[in-house]
Design a protein that fits this description.
- The chain has 12 helices and 20 strands.
- It is α/β, with parallel strands linked by helices and 431 residues long.
- The chain has a domain of 256 residues: Acetylglutamate kinase-like (Carbamate kinase), CATH 3.40.1160.
- The strands form 5 sheets. An 8-stranded mixed beta sheet has the order 3-6-2-1-9-11-12-10, sandwiched between helices.
- Strand 1, helix 1 and strand 2 form a beta-alpha-beta unit.
- The protein is globular.
Length: 431
């Protein structure tokens, strides 16, 4: 008998029939003798609809009240799922994030988990109940307010519960069969992976892969939680995310005995959520880059890639380009414009029509020619590269946004990652 933590996303509990299907899967795990704890997201597009409603009544909703509103979506899901399990003859108890002991920082909209005290969860398990926890939310002890964890918060809730309860595995259910070599919505013949290293998954998640969220992957790696990414809509094996020293559990058909070798390239990630800002005519003297990025940091923007051009000998000036989330761009532009006289640059250019393509593989450390393959594939496809960034196990390039999907497909093929059949995406609205 194992202790299993499961997480179901919005597409998995989109309507009454979906909730009953999820309830059956949970009950099947309980019948198999396992203790089960479930973290659940809001139904379908509920969170987005609540956000739209909030902005309809207030252009800038109060952060505390917005968290009160958004956290209601998961409370609806958890109660309905518990009811469905009850109707199948099994005891289920639903808990909000605060009732489940999810203690967070006070930052509304993007709180971080600082402690988990799952006393009531453990009591319910000891009494034989299935536990349903509202994902995406927690409680701050100092303010005594409800908080939300931001995008991917339900994944993080599930992993945090798994760590606190010392669960055997954390199963993350979504609308695809596991983790693929690329987003199957972008690259239809992407191939499903049976296993992937936590380090590689972290890079993929950080660079646009949406099947798992970066905060959840990082939390799992830090606390030694095994993640098993699966589909709600099929009985496939899925993908195991293995940290150091982990092996696929015995008896898993199709994955047992799989060695966690380091593939040269494990996957290709795409990201259309970033923008590029170019600071033109920066005086090429020590300290100017520091001034620029201190201003950007104070605006709250999270900078990703940075490129500085060679200084023009005639003018003694240079250009600095950097990428950041589109949502952060306007604040960063305002902050830089306000400080333009002090910094002494000439102008700013904002470009929100870019796309980032990243190639990830732990085997890059020991194999040559990985970058050459990438650049040759893009060249043959007529795709121009605007920026390049690398790490030990990743190469990222910025291209035109409308060329990103085609670029991903040709690069995926160039590395021999294509599967024999098209991947199946079962649900999801893409919103």
């Amino acid at each position: 008998m194992a202790l299993i933590v499961q997480k179901y996303g919005g597409s998995s509990v989109a309507d009454a029939e979906s909730i009953k299907r999820v309830a059956k899967r949970i009950v099947d795990a309980r019948r198999a003798g396992h203790d089960v704890v479930v973290a659940v997201s809001a139904m379908g597009d509920t969170t987005d609809e609540l956000l739209d409603l909030a902005h309809a009544v207030a252009p800038i909703p109060a952060p505390r009240e917005l968290d009160m509103l958004l956290s209601s979506g998961e409370r609806i899901s958890m109660a309905l799922l518990a009811m469905a399990i009850h109707s199948m003859g099994f005891e289920a108890r639903s808990f909000t994030g605060s009732q489940a002991g999810m203690i967070t920082t006070a930052h509304h909209g993007a709180a971080r988990i600082v402690d988990v005290t799952p006393v009531r969860v453990r009591e319910a398990l000891d009494e034989g109940a299935i536990v349903i926890v509202a994902g995406f939310q927690g409680f701050n002890r100092d303010t005594r307010d409800i908080t939300t964890l931001g995008r991917g918060g339900s994944d993080t809730t599930a992993v945090a519960l798994a760590a606190a309860l010392d669960a055997d595995v954390c199963e993350i259910y979504s609308d695809v069969d596991g983790i693929f070599t690329a987003d199957p919505r972008v690259v239809p013949n992407a191939r499903k992976l049976s296993v992937i290293g936590a380090e590689e998954m972290l890079e993929l998640a950080a660079n646009g892969a949406k099947v798992l969220y970066i905060r959840a992957v990082e939390y799992a790696r830090r606390h030694g939680v095994m993640i098993h990414a699966r589909s709600t809509f099929s009985s496939g094996v899925g993908t195991f995310v293995l940290g150091p020293g982990m092996t696929v559990p015995a008896g898993v058909e199709g994955a047992e005995g799989e060695e966690m070798e380091e593939p040269i390239v494990a996957g290709v990630a795409t990201d259309l959520s970033q923008a590029k800002i170019t600071v033109i005519g920066v005086p090429d003297v020590p300290g100017k880059a520091a001034e620029i990025f201190k201003i950007v940091a104070r605006s709250g923007a999270n900078v990703d890639m940075i490129v500085q051009n060679v200084s023009a000998a005639a003018t003694g000036r240079t250009d600095i380009s950097f990428t950041l989330p589109k949502a952060d761009a306007s604040a960063a532009l305002r902050a830089l414009a306000d400080e333009q006289p002090q910094v002494g640059f000439e102008s700013l250019v904002h470009d929100d029509q870019i796309g980032k393509l990243s190639v990830v593989g732990a085997g890059m450390r020991a194999h040559s020619g990985v970058s050459a393959t990438l650049f040759e594939a893009l060249s043959a496809a007529g795709v121009n590269i605007e920026m390049i960034s690398t790490s030990e196990i990743r190469i990222s390039v910025v291209v035109r946004g409308d060329e990103l999907a085609d670029a991903a497909r040709v690069v995926h093929t160039a590395y021999g990652l294509d599967g024999d059949t098209e991947a199946v995406v079962y649900a999801g609205t893409g919103r």
